[in-house]
Structures are given as C-alpha cells and as structure tokens.
Amino acid sequence: MLRPEDLICPKPEGLYCPPGEFYIDPVRPVDRAVITHGHSDHARAGHGTVLATPETLDIMHERYGADFTGRRQALAYGETIGRNGVDVTLVPAGHVLGSAQVVVRWKGMTVVASGDYKRRRDPTCAAFEPVPCDVFITEATFGLPVFRHPDSAQEVGKLLHSVAQFPERAHLIGAYALGKAQRIITLLREAGYDRTIYVHGALDRLNRLYERHGVRLGPLAAATGGKKEDFAGEIIVAPPSSLNDRWARRFPDPVTAFASGWMRVRARARQRGVELPLIVSDHADWDELTQTVADLRPGELWITHGREEALARWAELNGIRARALALVGYEDEEDAADAALEAEPA
Ligand SMILES: [Zn+2]
Ligand SMILES: [Zn+2]
Question: What is the pLDDT of residues 12-52, one digit of tens each?
Fold first, then answer.
C-alpha cells in the first residue's frame, strides 16, 4: 500500500521526492531542484540542476547571475518530464510571472505542490489551474478568516482618487520588486492611467524582463534628475525599503502608499508610516484558500507555512484530512517587504 509520503516527504531542505530524487523549492543547495517561482525564499542559487518554467529560469538568471545553477532544465506549462518513473508537470499558479504548481505523478498517485498562489485575476501572469490530486500542498500566508483582500481595481481606484485630490504632492508606492511592482503598474494602466510612471532603479531589470515576456507596462521613466516640483502629481513605484529612506526626500511632500496583503491590518500600516495602505496581494486570501480546497477536495491537505492552524481546522471540519508541515525558511516576500519598511529609520 503506497502512502503519499513515499512520493513526497518534508525534509529540512524542503519537500523531497525519494523516487524522483529531487527537492521542491529547497532552502539549501541540493543536486536536483524543482523551483515553483522566482521569489528568493523559494528560488535560491547554488543547486546542481534547476528545473523550472523558462520565465522562472530567466528571473533567477537576472537576480543571481548566469551561474546560479550548474544546469538548467526549462519546462513550459503543461509539458511533462519523467525521471525514474515519476512524472513532473508544471501548471500555472497565478502568483507572479512564471510561477508554477508542481504536479508529481507516480504509480497512479498525484501530489500537487502549489508553491505560492492566488486565484484572482492578474494580467501579469497565467491564471491558477486546479489539478485534481490525492494530496494538495498549500501555503497559508493569509490563512486566517480576517484576511480578505478587496478587489484590486478598487484599491488602485483609491490611489487614483488620492492623486486627483493632492495634485501638488507626489505619490510614492512601495511594491515588492518581483511581481507586485509590475502588477500595480499594469492595474494602473487598466484603470486608464496612461501618464509616465516613474520607477526606482532597483525595479528596472525586472520591469524589462516582464516586458520581454509580453507584459506591457506602458511609459516608464527613471525617478531621478529633475527638480522636486517636477514630481508633483506624479506616481513613483519603488521597493518598500526605499520608502522611508533619503531617496524619498527628492519628492514633494510624498503620500506614502504600500501595496501588500498585510495592509488589511490597520495598525501595521500606521506603525510603518503608511499614509495610503493598498491591500493588493499576490497570495490567496482566506476565501481563495478555502475555495481552492473546496474545489479540489484532495484526499489530504498539507500546509507548508503561514497560519496553518485555522486552515487545517477548516479542512478537518469539511471532512478533509489536513497536516501542518511547518516548513522553515519560507519568509514570504510580503512579510519581508513589510519588515524592510520597519527596518528603516522613521
Ligand atoms: Zn512568492
Ligand atoms: Zn513564498
């Protein structure tokens, strides 16, 4: 009798597949890694071989340099590769450009490791595809019923309203460099904002990478040079760590905005000196997590990291066996961005 643990089991390095001899998103260097997406807690440099989508390989190359791995193996969405009788397929996760769920099939059993994911529409990446499975491995970054992300267009509407209300001030938006920044820019374009958007230099390379992969960002310019007044009424997108540092002083009386699922917590926004919290997240909120589990009805639900208890309890109440893996080493980018804000002197 096969158990799911014979196919995928949690180890200190990450999720391991014994028959296929590979790890998924290992936090330490290993011989063979399958990487779900480019965020630094999942995609680390130094593995022997990295199997990932072409987009994720491109992101890793951009962030870590050409020698980020010994060997690259690109696997497009929907393609399958076999190793020792284990089939691996990458399926869109809807989290950031190139993000994939890892579908592992062996002897009639299917385990899906979702990586980070969300269900709502995101024009910068392919939408999450549900795959029926025996075990679904989920994150739970926002795994509490208090976390309900509002409609993203509505949040961007708040930003545009503020821009109209304060034409003499600059609007400085803190957004994580991989995924969030490009999503905010794209949402602004969808809302009809066609002016030049100014960007911090730290976002340039990933913005260009997104455009190479077909994501249209519209007119962008470096947020440097010019006089202070030139930025009155303009929108500037920057990594969260630059929001409270000297760099921000070049803009006229900036309205500080921060795009993160954590902005649901008002006290957190206040502590960080965020004047305009924008609740825009690349992670599933409580409704998306529970909806996904309800859609899939897997034989078992494994929860890697985040707020595991509430989701595990919800699954059990709905007749699905749940197990909290409490994997360490996955600090989500929205958490990290939030911490970066805190680290800066106010
Ligand atoms: Zn992520
Ligand atoms: Zn993550």
Answer: 999 999 999 999 999 999 999 999 999 999 999 999 999 99
Q: How much distance in Å is there from the Cα of 42 to the middle of ligand 2? A: 6
- DSSP character string of 140-165: ETT-STT-----HHHHHHHHHHHHHH
From the CA of 74, how far away is ligand 1's center (Å)? 19
3-state secondary structure of 214: coil
The CA 147 to ligand 2 mean position distance, Å, reads 17
Ligand nearest the Cα of residue 41 is 2
- Three-class SS of residue 182? helix
Report residue 319 as tokens: 């007749």
Token digits of residue 43: 């995609």
CA 138–ligand 2 middle distance (angstroms): 11
Its pTM stands at: 0.95
Instruction: DSSP letter for 232, please.
Output: T
- pLDDT single digits (tens) 167-221: 999 999 999 999 999 999 999 999 999 999 999 999 999 999 999 999 999 999 9
Residues with CB under 5 A from ligand 1 (ion): 39, 116
